[in-house]
Amino acid sequence: MKSAIQEAIGLQLMPVAIIQTNSLPPDALQFKEGAFGCVIALLKSASNGKTAVFSRATFGCPGGGVGLGFGNCYEHFPGGIEHFLSTGNPEFCQTEFGRAVATRMPDIEEGEGYFKTPEIAASFIASLPIMESEQEYVVFKPLQESGENEIPAVVVFLVNPDQLSALVVLANYGRHGNEQVIVPFAAACHTVGIIPFREARSETPRAVIGLTDVTVRNKFAKDLLSFAIPYPLFLEMEANVKGSFLEKHNWQHLLERNRTE
After folding, report:
1. Is 72 exposed, middle or buried, given 0-12, 13-18 or 19+ CB atoms closer than 10 A?
2. Which of 157, 165, 193, 176 is nearest to 250 (CA)?
3. d(C-alpha 92, C-alpha 84), whole Å
4. Euclidean distance between the first and final Cα of the chain, in Å?
5. Neighbours of 219 (CB within 10 A)
6. Domain limits of the chain?
7. d(CA 128, CA 186)
8. For the chain, where are the E strands, in sequence order?
9. CB-based contact 17:150 (threshold 8 Å)
């Protein structure tokens, strides 16, 4: 599947199709069962032409399991996910099990500091659209390599500020109002997974800006953010490229700037 948007905005990295499926793709990248890994690292691989797959046994980390729609993988997070995201759990780290966990996750003692208190962190977890997928696998693959029978749940673009600006405008181009794009606070995998999955189920799905997750920013160039588009909105945006601002001089000047810099 080719993308008119990709060409119109001069995208350097491939758009990534996120597909929920019961079919295991051959020769795909996949974490070993029970091994730690970052979902977003494989999103980067897919944007460079690889195919990656995740299952309930190979989602890499609890946040990744939640983000991919494999249920509430935070329920048994050692020391409590609400403490890890906020002020830490030094008491837990004094136990034998806690000391062992802290050797692999040192932030568990002092916390990541993304929330002021564990209570606020817990309310964040409660606000997530945690879901239990009906499919066995989630696949990340270049959009252009998806088959006719592979309907993505979401299409993700990795974009610089100029390209992000164009996508925000295009998402609003054919709709009333001005709030067709959201920037929720969440883990990077949430903003390409369960949050746009939720949007896809609404009557007027919105796009989701992500990669604002400080923990994973260093995996990407400093000027890249993600723009996750529920598939119905993606089709709408694709159809609106022709005749839009993307063919007019203001955008063409920015497009040329990106080609020469």
Report:
1. middle
2. 165
3. 11
4. 29
5. 15
6. 4-19+140-260, 73-127
7. 8
8. 16-21, 52-54, 137-142, 154-159, 181-182, 207-210, 225-230
9. yes
> Using CA atoms, how far apart are residues 212 and 210, in angstroms rounded to an integer?
5
Q: Which residues, listed in sequence order, are joined to residue 31 by a DSSP beta bridge?
A: none
Determine the Cα–Cα distance for residues 130 and 65; give it in Å rounded to an integer: 10
What three-state secondary structure class fits 223? coil
CB of 188 within 8 A of CB of 156? no
Q: What is the pTM of this model?
A: 0.94
Contact 226, 210 (CB under 8 A): yes
* Phi, psi (deg, nearest 5) at residue 75: -55, -35
Per-residue pLDDT tens listing for the chain (261 residues): 789 999 999 999 999 999 999 999 999 999 999 888 999 999 999 999 999 999 999 999 999 999 999 999 999 899 999 999 999 999 989 899 888 888 888 888 999 999 999 999 999 999 999 999 999 999 999 999 988 889 999 999 999 999 999 999 999 999 999 999 999 999 999 999 999 999 999 999 999 999 999 999 999 999 999 999 999 999 999 999 999 999 999 999 999 988 866
For residue 159, the cross-strand partners are: 225
Kindly report the length of the chain. Answer: 261
Report CA torsion sign: 17, 22, 27, 30: positive
For residue 252, which of 14, 13, 12, 9 has the smallest C-alpha distance? 9
Q: Which helix (H) or strand (E) covers residue 162, if one does?
A: helix 161-173
